[in-house]
Structure formats: structure tokens, C-alpha cells
Amino acid sequence: MIAIHCPRMKTDTDIEKIKAAVSRYGIVEPCGIDNLHKIKKAFDNEYWPAYFLFDREGKLLRRTSGKVGLSMLEPILDKLCL
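and the corresponding C-alpha cells:
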């Protein structure tokens, strides 16, 4: 699991504020900061939060987004973890 912070406005690009938010929200995954929106553009992502599920070879299996996005991946994750 990797978290990627993609700022929506200039004030969201302050790295120290991002680190504080990661700590405050208890995010334990590695967190990349996409201040230049390169990752966002590479995955053609326009929605937050967004979730991408890859297999061991790096092939994209599923992508979902929005408030229910993660719940849509849970059955797939459960199956993979068996």
C-alpha cells in the first residue's frame, strides 16, 4: 500500500504540513507527494480518493474512486489474501 498526496491548491503543497497531516490521520503507509501532478497525469486521475490495485507483475487489475471506492476493492483484496 502506498499513499500519494496530490494537492488541489497551492496551499496544499507545503511538505511540512503534509507530513503533519500524515501523522495526524495515522497514515502508516509510505506517502509520496505529487506536487507536480506527474502521478495524477500518468494515471489519468481526476477523482479523490482514488484506489489502484496492481498484481505482482505491476499490471493494473482495478481502479476505483470516491467514498465507496475502497469498499469496492475489499472483496478482491480478501480473495487475493486467501
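(Above: one complete record from the training split.) The CA atoms of residues 49 and 77 lie 18 Å apart.
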